[in-house]
Records
---
Amino acid sequence: MGKAFWIGIIGGIFRILGAMLAYLIAFFGTSLLYANDNRFVNKLRSWKLKRLRLYLSKKYIHGSGLEIGALHKPLRLFNGANVLYVDRKTVDKLRSDYPELNHHSLVDIDIIDDGERLNTIEDSSADFIVASHFLEHCEDPIMTIETFIRVLRPDGILFLAVPDKRLIDKNRSLTNLEHLIADHRFGPTISREDHFKEYEECVVHRPVKRGYSIHHHVWTYKEIVELLSYLECKKELGISTKKVAKTRFENIFVVRKN
């Protein structure tokens, strides 16, 4: 038996070990990840998510647009795309709100505006809008998405990334479509205090100042699909979901204005 034979045997062993590792991660990775006791699995999933974001950005993001609430994690852009960063406060005030980000670089804010309303942004003026881990902070997500569609040009792209409830909000109740419709129809004040109390009891276990940007709503992949399907039925919006990416960390939706 020659050298080539043993090289083949060793290569086969490594392929089998690689397949076994992938199997273990697929079946046991979720519990390990959410228990926060396996750094390897955590880093692997984070790496895969970053690769997915890069792929979607390269494929769908072109022209000039906006990113809402990017903070320290703006979406990397390609294809010569130009972006203006929108937030409700200046960088100094954001650092005051989020002292845990003091060791991170925050993007320079180009436009100070309420990301849910974008009152200073003209209709049909953006080729794309990126809203990553933003929608769950909105008191009226339906109005927010309608605002984004107003600002997009025809064929414009909404890049929507929403965290899965199992990361931070695993002990909280899911937000169903009926709740979102009520918040939109009657105003978010009908549920605001309930959101804060649940966030205090189930997430931070301490009082939270009213007006702080909490996760008002909590979703899994299923609830976001229901929300977008509901909005797609509103012909005056004229939107369609072009791409859906479901991951352990978050769910990403690429929505086009028709």
---
Amino acid sequence: MSLNGLLAALPTSGWNDTSVESLGTNFVTKWSNVTNINQAIILTVFWIGIAVALAFGVINGVKYAMSGGDKFAAQAAKQGVTNAIIGFIIVIGFRTIVALIMSLLGGGTPTGTSAPVFP
């Protein structure tokens, strides 16, 4: 049996609707240009960075609270909180610099608006 014969034997009802609007969202159009993909990547990296900085801050804050008078443990926890704050500032700076560069190049911002908007 040839490939054409196999294809002819398959049911075709409903296959003529090739639009993706029937899925509830226009997936192809949404992800078809590079700007939308870049925006999604930038926002994902931003929110992951915020989550990691926050997690490190909370973990080291708990370590500081649980140090129980041990000077070395308290110092290490303080340094961890300081590093988390620095990481948070770096992530915010990353978002600001990317938004500035994208707006200067005319590509919008990571949020898709014309002006940098921070959540």
---
Amino acid sequence: MTAHDFQQLTANADEDGTLFAVRLHDKPGAGDLRRQLLAAHLEWVARQPALLRVAGSLRESPEATPVGALWVVRAPDKAAVEALIATDPFTTGGLRAGWDIYYWSKALPQAVSF
């Protein structure tokens, strides 16, 4: 097993910017609104490659309507993450009930490349 410098890992020293995990919550029963906004949201996601490193919906089962999303964001600070969320069509269109933003310290030495 390779020894790792855990202080360096948790500081995300190999990354360009701070990493954040974002848990977004949809309003209950808003599946129809989600479907209406989906095309605009996906176009918006495609225009965010510098900040939005990975994004996807969360659901209780594969066939269930999403209840929100999980993002990994690379940004200079938490304010930049808030600003990103504010421009998402799912936010501006009224789908989001709220979100949680966490500083994310990865546990593996590989650079985030997804």
---
Amino acid sequence: MSLTERGLAGRAPGERRDDGHTASEISNAVVSLFAEYVGRGPTRARTVLGRDLVAVVLEETMTKAERRLVLEGQDETVVETRRVFQRTMREDLVAAVERITGRSVVAFLSDHTTAPDVSVEVFVLAPNG
């Protein structure tokens, strides 16, 4: 089935899926995990769902201490520390997305930038069906 036949959201005609609810649930789970691991969660989170892809964009994720380090020119230190946290959280993040979507995650990619304070968590899902 072509992309045109499936529609922009990657669904076949008549296939029902509450993407808004799923996206919101994933955003909430990721924010909660960040808060648990880092001590505070991002102030904004947006999840975008594709046929075999989940992308979570997080904004204002840095702690007060990390913001201070950035002001002192230690951007790379903050980014490297965040990458360690993201690798540490990997198992829990993947488990949350698999639980919520009901699909296996075959790849997880994560990165962070300090200007602007944005991070992205990307989950590639196993083909459905």
